[in-house]
Design a protein that fits this description.
minor pseudopilin epsh fold, three-stranded antiparallel β-sheet, globular
Length: 225
């Protein structure tokens, strides 16, 4: 009997060691590099905002996500369901912040602006009537976000249509609505306050000048697969 108990303990210890090794080997999330300089989007978004937004705010989401995932792995290893549940809000907030911003940076370009082309433009005209109507609707939904959040152009896989939606805080679009994110506009105040103060509509109007429609088009093509 003692021999069997000893074997069980060794098996349990080995299992815990394996779980810890897997957790330790998990690749941590990292802050993505921008493909343009912080000042490249001026005068529409100034360098100070971009530097703080990317190197401070997004970096904080990444760091906190890594810490939270480590704690979650520990809770899994211990079978501590209460701790797992308690960590869910932090996973959603910091994970969403990382997901959203990783999309946001690629949605912007110093060579952006203008109008989309090809399949994306056809889809916009089909689902909104015209490019201008889509911009107006997305701007209205985005400006109307209460407090902090995001305005999104997303793809509905079930209907094959484009949709506009808003998400509060850092709630990720796909995890919240099921829509695949194509274009996001961040309306947390840290995204615009240093330049536009509390005039959110001016910021939303200006950001169209740096939208990377090629990136949005690529996201649509991937979403349709």
């Amino acid at each position: 009997m003692l021999c069997r108990v000893g074997q069980l303990r060794r098996c349990a210890a080995s299992l815990n060691q394996s779980i810890n090794q897997i957790a330790a080997s998990r690749q941590k999330h990292t802050l993505p590099d921008l493909t343009y300089d912080y000042g490249a989007l001026e005068p529409h978004i100034n360098a100070e905002i971009m530097q703080l937004h990317h190197s401070k705010h997004h970096a904080t989401y990444v760091n906190n996500l890594n810490v939270t995932e480590e704690k979650y792995q520990e809770a899994l290893a211990k079978g501590d369901v209460s701790a797992q549940v308690a960590l869910q809000p932090a996973l959603k907030f910091n994970g969403g912040g990382h997901i959203n911003h990783a999309i946001f940076w690629t949605n912007l370009s110093p060579n952006g602006g203008g109008e989309p082309q090809g399949e994306l433009m056809e889809a916009i005209k089909r689902d909104f009537g015209s490019f201008q109507k889509m911009k107006e609707k997305m701007a209205a939904v985005t400006v109307a976000v209460q407090g902090s959040g995001w305005g999104w152009l997303g793809y509905d896989k079930e209907s094959g249509r484009l949709r506009i939606a808003a998400c509060a805080n850092q709630d990720p679009l796909q995890g919240t609505t099921g829509l695949v994110p194509l274009l996001g506009i961040d309306v947390w105040e840290h995204a615009y306050y240093l330049q536009y103060k509390n005039v959110r509509p001016d910021y939303v109007k200006a950001i169209w000048n740096v939208i990377n429609w090629e990136n949005v088009h690529e996201r649509l093509q991937i979403a349709k697969k």
